[in-house]
Design brief:
Elements (H helix, E strand, L loop, with lengths): L20 H5 L16 H13 L6 H5 L11 H9 L5 H13 L6 H6 L2 H6 L4 H15 L5 H6 L2 H9 L6 H10 L12 H11 L7 H8 L6 H15 L9
């Protein structure tokens, strides 16, 4: 599954890394972390420090972009449903769709979602393929093919494989859920466009690395690849003038 274009498609190298967001993107400075953002957990703060020692380019991200907003999602059905809303579209569109979908009575429960007709789901902004995908997810949860309690204890690769087995849910969707829903420390969604753009900008690369090359680059950040992803999203949002907040 292709990653959603959660950042601008303009080449990352056109925005100088050392310049502030207004200078780089011609917009007002990004907002600080939202007041509702929970603090970074102690384990993650320690991992961020360790990541900065592994790769000093990460050490200055928060100095430039501000404190990292700590984003969490529901570890179960609702959180994975939210991630599906973010596939292949912008953050703004995903947030709008999620707002409408989550307001539908019963939508955040597998049985309740299946009871909704296609017109209601389409009215929330889901495309026809996504209607099929969210129904497939709900069905898999109800019939036990996808067990979130079991996924919590599964190794990363096994959890990604189990989620990816649901029609319409690929590795990106699974990996993002492991990062934000399960708060796994060492998962990297290498197919994400914004991560590729963030790496290219941070490292002064001439082009965005392809997913396989990005995964190879990220090996150097293990066992803290999830924190690397969070920091790179934060860095790229700052570089392109977007406010800190929910993404991808």
């Amino acid at each position: 599954m292709a990653a959603p274009p959660s950042a601008s498609r303009s080449p990352a190298r056109r925005i100088p890394r050392g310049r502030s967001s207004p200078e780089a993107a011609g917009v007002t400075p990004p907002s600080p972390a939202p007041a509702a953002s929970p603090p970074v957990p102690d384990w993650a703060r320690e991992a961020i420090l360790a990541l900065g020692r592994l790769d000093p380019d990460f050490a200055g991200i928060e100095d430039r972009a501000g404190p990292l907003p700590w984003r969490r999602r529901d570890p179960g059905f609702a959180g994975l449903l939210r991630t599906i809303c973010g596939q292949m579209i912008s953050n703004q569109a995903a947030a709008a769709i999620w707002g409408r979908l989550s307001a539908l009575p019963g939508a955040l429960d597998p049985a309740g979602l299946l009871a909704l007709d296609d017109a209601a789901l389409r009215g929330a902004g889901l495309s026809r393929p996504k209607v099929s995908h969210v129904r497939a997810l709900a069905g898999a949860v109800l019939d036990g093919r996808l067990d979130f309690a079991a996924l919590r204890d599964a190794p990363d690769d096994a959890a990604v494989a189990a989620i990816s087995a649901i029609p319409g849910l690929g590795p990106w969707t699974a990996q993002v859920h492991l990062v934000f829903g399960f708060e796994r420390p060492d998962v990297f969604p290498a197919g994400d466009i914004a991560l590729a753009a963030g790496v290219a900008h941070l490292k002064f690369l001439p082009d965005r690395p392809k997913p396989r090359a990005l995964a190879e680059i990220a090996l150097a950040w293990s066992p803290h690849r999830s924190l690397a992803a969070r920091l790179l999203w934060h860095h790229w949002r700052h570089a392109t003038g977007r406010p800190a907040g929910e993404a991808p």
